[in-house]
Amino acid sequence: MKETMQGRYGKYGGQYIPETLMAAVDELAAAFEAALKDDGFRHEFEYLSRTFSGRPTPVYRADRLTEQAGGAEIWFKREDLCHTGAHKINNALGQVLLARRMGKRRIIAETGAGQHGVAVATVCAKFGLPCEVYMGVDDMARQATNVYKMRLLGATVTPVESGSKTLKDATNEAIRDWVTNVRTTHYVIGSAVGPHPYPLMVREFQSVIGREARAQMLTETGRLPAVVVACVGGGSNAIGIFAPFYDDPVRLVGVEAAGRGLDSGAHAASIVGGRPGVLHGSFSYLLQDDDGQVMATHSISAGLDYPGVGPEHAFLHDQHRAEYVSVTDEQALAAFHQTSRLEGIIPALESSHAIAYAVPLAAELAASDLVLVNLSGRGDKDVDIVRGASDG
Amino acid sequence: MSRIAATFARLAAQRRLALIAYLTVGYPRLDVTPSLVQTAADSGADAIELGIPFSDPLADGPTIQAASQQALKGGTTVARALEAATAARKRTDAPILFMTYLNPILAFGLQRFCRAASEAGVDGLIVPDLPPAESADLRQAAVASQLDLVFFVAPTSSEASVAAACGAATGFIYCIAVTGVTGARAELDPGLLPLIELVRRHTNLPIVVGFGISRPEHLEALTGKADGVIVASALLDAIAQSPEDPTARVREFLTGLRPLA
Predict the structure, then answer these.
(1) Lower CB density within 10 Å: C or N end of chain B?
(2) B137 flagged as catalytic
(3) Chain B, nearest residue to A295 by Cα
(4) Domains of chain B
């Protein structure tokens, strides 16, 4: 599954960006490659992952969900226990360390649910770097706590009014800022999307999830999971947990957001419901109309509410190395409540999509099988949305 | 000789800068696009760049974003842009180029798009999110349909990127005047003239400057240095001042930018 020339995953990926950014992505690719070979960089990343981000995160056997499913054992990889409450800190830390190596003194980011924005703002506070986060006004309204957290951390949160006022438009605006300030600014993309080297780089910084989980499952159970399940918006937590299992006889399942149902048109399932196209610098599955215009998306989870998906997922799908499925808002909400009550863990709505698929899947598997779910984030940020959905 | 090459050759002989006017198809309304093309050509524009609106124009500033959104809301599609170009071609002999992002072209089909554009009387394509390294398929389709394919150089471009753009481009080189997105600006970037000189060392193609061009003094400063300028956001800003009479605004703005010869 290794990427090829120019960051291609089969026919997917590439660098479809304005000329103004070409020098910056070339510089970034070279800096990333050099950093990976530099023990000093790796040590600093690992040291801060341990002492600042709180790694390693444990794997946990979800006994009561397992009992309810009545099949395979369900395990969680507890990325919700990371500093800032989600896996997003892994990539934010890696990219900000890289930006420092490159001498870029200003950091920008886009955010949907706000988890990536909070993670980047956190790392920037730690290093004393100015940070500007672009966020759609609709997302600012539904994730107000994260907006406040970013401001507490010293970041500037810039509202994006254009288009659908969500993650896609925040990404457009972050790219426009980067085009304008590229000489001084590093753009920390939050998912495994964007032009090469971003999808590769984000996978590298997130694959700590899968490396840890693989070793921990062997330690705790003596075997590998039969299935690994993760939610997929852009797909960073999924690629992070999938990649270390590529060579194992392990099913990989990515769960996209079916919103109000695939037939409703109000969803964000790019692979299940879209077709290949170019957005934000790479060629991958995309929700678009017949004329190639990018469609408005919907998911109850702001972090999955994005019309594109990382190019490596597109490739894994075409190669049948991973399966992509979808789960509705309603199913994700049910899993949110179920996990809160049965396990004492309030999962992010994003991660609830993965759980919603994993529980019925476990029911179909043998009791000797293991299903590993990437619990990519915690649900504190979603409490108001869930309360609203329950009241409504 | 292509319409684009012939136009630059004629203007070079007159030591005149080519003035290229950008209009978003369907802005302010779809039905006025062909007549706005004619008005622009009659008001001193030597060529017309027609933008096919895209939902996510990430190289564009607020003016072209707003025009694109309005055009899409008004029902502008690739098929309708082709119809508008066909109608415009009946009204003027000036070169017409399509500008759009890659995805609408991919969705239409690269070859089908190039054939249809050529049949509509379009002379060239400008695709801001398509760098030379990713352009092999579209270049092949453009060549097969006798369309010029323009590439960009920017103030941040390495010399290798400048060489790649000059090697891949036909028609002209689009020289981005600022480190940034499209939009009218008061001043020209001091790095622009050295960039033009660098490009000149790599190609004999005409060099056209765009992004930020909005004032007569910009044209004066570039006469004898570049071969042409593109005026886009400033022209759309003028239309936005009274969209009920876009023809008058286009005429007034372009003749104000450069009096008719």
Answers:
(1) C
(2) no
(3) B55
(4) 3-256 (3.20.20.70)
